[in-house]
Amino acid sequence: MIGENFEKVKARIAAACARVKRDPAEITLVAVTKGRNVDEIAQAVAAGAIDIGENMIQEALVKFNAKPLAISHKPIKWHMVGHLQTNKVKEAVGIFDLIHSIDSLRLAIEIDKQAAKINKIQDVLIEIKTSPEATKSGILPQEAGKLIEEIAHFKNIALKGFMTIAPLVDDPEKARPYFRILRELKDSFSHVQYAISHMPILSMGMTDDFEVAIEEGATMVRIGRAIFEGVSLRANEVGEAIPKT
Length: 245
Ligand SMILES: *Cc1c(COP(=O)(O)O)cnc(C)c1O
Known about the structure:
binds pyridoxal-5'-phosphate, 16% strand
């Protein structure tokens, strides 16, 4: 079931890429495993999942240290996709390859400090609040420039791009403007010397809206339910075009 779902998601990613003439190899699929057990994660890994996303530190630590995953000898990359509290940074830096949710200077300072202690350069994304109602976390697009500049001074943080969570909408097309805001934000920094080569990642798109996100330039999609629940795929699955509005 999980293996089949994983394959279907990959096919849908490929179909979305084909519509906008992108190479599916540009898209990293993060399997979001919050609330899923180690056995379920192991099934996803067996199906080819490399990138695993969690949103709570305690839960992630348990899974990170779980034997069944360790003995699979697969090169798992761990992603922190949820909001990160300053007092959990030490543990987060210890296990995550990419933290998607930097939304304050205070958090960045702590990440830099904890990463320095273990000689790590921590890859991070800045979380942008592209819609007022979607989440409490994230900074406004107009605040990004200042935070990017500040982060550029930290030796133990590597800024890799941006993340956003689109609001819950009944039709994925309605999420499109929020993804566009994120892509345009990234493009607006492409001339900035210290940011240019380091910011290729746009983490956007979840089960309900990842195809639209890919059409708008996502390079990383975070998908939980389509992989782990028996969700029925909508009409926009493999081969059928999403009607453009
Ligand atoms: C849960 C979660 C996802 C995955 O959501 P699905 O709708 O299950 O695909 C992606 N991103 C974040 C930040 C999440 O918390």
